[in-house]
């Protein structure tokens, strides 16, 4: 008997889970559901548009979704359009792979002042996410970015670059217009720890310095090391590479460029200052404690900025009728089997990706998560769903007048975006509005196989 499996979430985690299952079982058929009309999750809506190398992962994900035993169903929200009990009616098992796309909070005074933003929300905007406003208030000359990971680097780079530098990417027209009108001159990126503890990669770091319009300035007073820092550099090659790059930048001659991107280390944010809006960021200088960790020095600095972006991590959201650990932002599980409040496996329910292990690591790390989850699923005795015919769930959606997108529909939209970009020598120009994406997905015509 064939297995009928649902995967909720069409980002890398969900697609990798489907790929593992298809390869491990000759009988499995899979529906991948997503609340967005398009597949690929944060690859489409979280990775900065000037990262074409990372976006090339879509080529591999396309091959998985193009498998005839996998069906993509977009514009469907779990718990709203299809309720959990209905999922159990149509599928033998459900794998939750909804990822993490919200901003983790930063608990300091003033963080909620107007002019203070989450990096994930900003990334959704400049990537043309259909559920965020089309406008963004880019009216600050001096901007602070809090964080030292790849997302912080992306946000700082997009804020500092000129809009014309991004015209070769897939940014939507509304994003270009807003960035072109930005008065920014200085972007300050703050890391509470030292250069040997940064989370970005050497490739991400080098890309900061690639713009002919941006002067990257490493402030040397934060370039400090203790025994823990030296041990980290000895243990991990990419840490040593990042430190070498930062040290070289800290002592090089200044270059005359219209915009500046400042890197500050050992500066922990303690308060956002302002009367009704962001007017400054207060940081406390940190001291290394010998083991790579830090403590406050009691020395504070107020930085003149008019906007603050926090890039301190992504956060998953709870789903209907499923347990959720608010502290870690994950669904409790044992080897991918979702556990109820008593620690017992909820039959037929599994989890993978960031909502399983937290939003850490690179995209490829979700492959290991998927492998463990699929191994657990295949080891379990799954009773067949009552209405497991592949058309049953489609009949349910049609009866509720829910407009869903399909794999063929996505390919139509994909080809339309590519066609929009061709006259401008761009790979694509994204369609932003959900209604327009749905309309274009319905347009008849041939698609690539």
What report would you give on this structure?
The chain has 449 residues and is α/β, with parallel strands linked by helices. The protein has two domains: 4-100 and 317-403, NAD(P)-binding Rossmann-like Domain (Rossmann fold, 3-Layer(aba) Sandwich); 102-314, FAD/NAD(P)-binding domain, CATH 3.50.50. Helix content is 33%, strand content 21%. The protein starts with a strand and ends in a 7-residue tail after the last helix.
- In DSSP terms (H or I, runs of 4 or more residues), the helix count works out at 16
What gyration radius follows from the Cα positions, in whole Å?
23 Å
What's the mean pLDDT score?
93
Secondary-structure-based class equals alpha/beta
CATH architecture of the largest domain: 3-Layer(bba) Sandwich
Task: Please estimate the helix content.
Answer: 25-40%
Largest sheet: 8 strands, mixed
Features:
2 domains, FAD/NAD(P)-binding domain, 33% helix, 19 strands, eight-stranded mixed sheet, 449 residues, alpha/beta, six-stranded parallel sheet, Rossmann fold
What's this, in brief?
The chain contains 16 helices and 19 strands. With 449 residues, the chain is α/β, with parallel strands linked by helices.
